[in-house]
Amino acid sequence: MILALLAATVVLSAASPPDAVALARGVQAFYEKTKDLETSFVQTYTYAAFGRSQTSRGTLRVKKPGKLRWDYDAPAAKTIVVNGSRLVQFEPEANQAYVDDHFDASAMSAAVTFLLGRGSLEKEFDLATGGEGKLVLTPKKPDARVEQVVLTVGEGGEVKVTRVVDGSGNVNEIAFQKLRRNVGLKDELFVLELPKDVHLVKTPGE
User: Fold this and answer.
1) Sequence-separated (6 or more) residues with CB below 8 Å from residue 107
2) What is the pLDDT of residues 131-183, one digit of tens each?
3) Domain 2-181 carries which CATH code?
4) Measured distance CA(42)–CA(55) in Å, rounded
5) Backbone Cα Rg of the chain
6) Most-buried pick from 30, 42, 100, 126 (CB within 10 A)?
């Protein structure tokens, strides 16, 4: 689920139509000029195998370089923080956490890293349009995490909705609302202190 969420980060492709290229460059330019941002979000994750969906709500904060924080309010409290090479997921109701001190943020798709002003949509994806303001991204190289991404782009280049379909057909759609950028977020927001008695969850094989 973490990878699916992170997978919801420009050389011209000759096969890309000009309007798709313009949209992609507008997105890159918007986030390259963004030092930090804060936005509420509504996430709908649809599980293809079970034919059911789960809707979550919360707040996303981003700060350069390499800082992301997702605070989920519903259906249950959860916080996911990426700060450089450290990833922490904390679930307060269960008092459990997953910590990765060697998280390879560079492996995240440009479908996520554009938020940090990094990655290249044109390098990593074939570009097309899918209606007014919709940028359709298909990975140039096979990637089980991302089969297709659709970005709904505002007039200023801001992304209003991301829709990521993975190789199994699961759909992760996130709608952003009330986006504020360059608000001066503090570094301390991206340092998550865990309770001393927290239960640390290990990945399989550890």
Assistant:
1) none
2) 888 999 999 988 777 899 999 999 999 999 999 998 899 999 999 999 999 99
3) 2.50.20.10
4) 7
5) 17
6) 30
Long-range contacts of 2-6 (CB under 8 A, 24+ apart): 2/80, 2/87, 2/89, 2/98, 3/145, 4/45, 4/145, 4/164, 4/166, 4/170, 4/172, 5/43, 5/70, 5/80, 5/172, 6/68, 6/82, 6/108, 6/112
The predicted model scores a pTM of: 0.84
Residue 175 in contact with residue 42, Cβ under 8 Å? yes
CB 147 within 8 A of CB 163: no
Task: Transcribe 18-45 into DSSP letters.
Answer: HHHHHHHHHHHHHHHT-SEEEEEEEEEE
| Count of Cβ atoms closer than 10 Å to residue 155 Cβ | 7
Cβ atoms of 146 and 109 within 8 Å: the answer is yes
Q: Where exactly are the structural domains of the chain?
A: 2-181
